[in-house]
Amino acid sequence: QQQVKQSPQSLIVQKGGISIINCAYENTAFDYFPWYQQFPGKGPALLIAIRPDVSEKKEGRFTISFNKSAKQFSLHIMDSQPGDSATYFCAAISNSGGYQKVTFGTGTKLQVIP
Amino acid sequence: IAGITQAPTSQILAAGRRMTLRCTQDMRHNAMYWYRQDLGLGLRLIHYSNTAGTTGKGEVPDGYSVSRANTDDFPLTLASAVPSQTSVYFCASSDRPSGANVLTFGAGSRLTVL
User: Fold this and answer.
1) What is the per-residue pLDDT across B56-90, written as a single tens digit (0 to 9) for each?
2) Chain-chain contact of A100 with B97 (C-beta, under 8 angstroms)
3) Contact, B65 vs B79, CB < 8 A?
4) CA–CA dist A6, A23 (Å, integer)
């Protein structure tokens, strides 16, 4: 059972365009929502994260929008660049039994074409 | 450079053979994790360790074992490899086991079981 549903599976965006990746969750115990960026042959790396008491967080060209009532959050990449081409994972974190449980989405492969 | 070192980078293994994937971190993080990454399934937790001397089962622990003899090392062992264990394996660490904190990932070990 996928507790964090991510879409789309793949995305092609023109350089300069806006990339949008969506995630939805069911478990209300999640209390932190990070996004990870993964380049080919590398491990995922934290990109940006948000807490559920905030509706939006922006860091440079990357913005997370969070809708607590709908249990949805999304990543927007403004002015997308070829260097943004990577796989993006949303995640949701809860604390259970004394350890941090991180549930990942299935990933979105983004390709930004010149 | 501080971080996580995984070895081997890739390995082809015959079914039934024993294999140990090595993971070493130099950040003195308390918590360590092993994930497997499969296309369309995202990252799934295999085992974790909150601190040296303790381990716990994650989402997909069957067929795998771990040990945490010290803070820095967290090897993952496949006692008798099967083709379904073909995957990319990522070791990760965080500075504390609970709360919202950043996971630092290694570069991964690609394992093919024939």
Assistant:
1) 999 899 999 999 999 999 999 999 999 999 999 99
2) yes
3) yes
4) 4
